[in-house]
């Protein structure tokens, strides 16, 4: 899995659509047309918080990624992107484990190997 795969996933599509509907306009110019989500950083790829994202129209998004008409190519961006690709596999494993714990909790009222009290505490934090 890689960054581009994640951007085409249902998880990202749902998350970006919800944020666009919530914000409703470009956070730079106020336009309500051709809106999309922009990652401010890639620290929480897959588990993005609202502070990690911003809604931008297409024109502002292009401007945000360019300087004097040329695409910005920063070392930091490339390193974060490589790191996110490596961590994405771990993200999928973590999500699968959380889903498995939720399923166990729903079926039996507890997570396998844990008491009901500890299971409830974990479920409150998921």
Features:
126 residues; 11% strand; elongated
One letter per element, helices H and strands E, the order comes to HHEEHEEHH
Strand segment tally = 4
**Per DSSP, what share of the residues sits in E-state strands of 2 or more residues?**
5-15%
Secondary structure tally, helices: 5
Which helices and strands occur, and which strands form pairs?
Elements: H1 3-7, H2 10-23, E1 35-39, E2 53-57, H3 58-64, E3 66-67, E4 70-71, H4 75-108, H5 116-125
Antiparallel strand pairs: 1-2, 3-4
Characterization of this structure:
- The chain is mainly α.
- The protein has one domain.
- Helices cover 56% and strands 11% of the residues.
- It has 5 helices and 4 strands.
- The protein has helices spanning 3-7, 10-23, 58-64, 75-108, 116-125; strands spanning 35-39, 53-57, 66-67, 70-71.
- The protein has a two-stranded antiparallel sheet. It has a two-stranded antiparallel ribbon with strand order 3-4.
- The longest helix is centred in the C-terminal third of the chain and has 34 residues, at 75-108.
- It is elongated.
- The two termini are 23 Å apart.
- The mean pLDDT is 78.
